[in-house]
Design goal:
With 354 residues, this protein is mainly beta. The chain has one domain: Porin, CATH 2.40.160.10. It is 9% helix and 54% strand. The chain is built from 4 helices and 16 strands. The protein has a 16-stranded antiparallel beta barrel. β1 and β2 form a beta hairpin. The longest helix has 13 residues.
Amino acid sequence: MKKSFLTVILSVFVCGQAFALSDIEISGEADMNAMVNLLPSGEAGESEFRIPSLLLNFSVPLKDDNLLYVSFEGAQKRNDDTNTESFIVNTREAYLDLVSIFEGAHSLRMGVIPQAWLESQYEDTNYRFLGETAWGLTEKWKYQNYSDLGMSFMSELPANLGEWSLTVVNGEGREQDSAGPHKEGSLYFRFTSWTPFVISLQYIHGTYEQYGEDVSAKERIQAAFLYKPEDSNVRMGLELLDTHDPADAVNDLKMADGVDVTDMLGEAVHGLGGSAYVLLSTGPKAELMLRYDYLDAVADKDGRDMQTGIISLAYQVTADVKTALAVDRTWYAENYGPGIRDTSKVELAAQVLF
């Protein structure tokens, strides 16, 4: 996949008859962290410098308002088997945004497309640069990949209520092709007309092909409520999550922070989660962020829930540079999994947009 999309990019640059090179918009983001562990106690005081994400985006205008968009992401990935990290570059997004065949505000995306829920969520909060602890719930707990191979039809809702999309993808993430009969479908609604409230709803249904038919279903039910009044120094958000997966998939894909479901293999697992956050402007350039996440990874069993709290003080140095000092802690229930311990860290993070 990496080579094929690199070929696309090179073809774009040499094909000067279709568009002028000056029309190509190149942007990116560099996230940088310096952190010190507070927990586990045996690792207290250990420090680390990280680049959790490095994005390079190409937006290529085509004729009749169509668009080719390609994004590469470099990120540090940990190998659980060797307990080592390496910096890996992958194609994050690569899709054709086709609007010329429709009348009005409609669009068809084809290729490696972003999930509408996570894309809009990061546009609302933009605190992903703090690292995985601050990612969207479904991405950080591996219930959903940020992007996948497939297509999506997007349009506006009637009476200017907002927008909606219908998406069909392979369901295995952008790093894997899938020739099987089962695909993953999602229906997404975002209501924006009830200012200052924004309400989002999403339903995802897919099938794991390698597990028994009785427990092969994958489901995600999500709801989010955002309060963002104009000319106010306060924004608040609430997200709710309901999940259904085979226990074998939860175990094999290390979902939900590696929760122990070995006693449920061959059965279905139901999970419940949520997140609440507050953004408070404390000055012309400063912002305080408080966030609390909760996951009951196995709702039918006791002692397999987790909680995460984040406190961040951010400062907008310039329009393209934001820094933040953050502290987070994650608590695990006693039966969450063997060897899983509470974690905590303090970090100095920076986000650079270019």
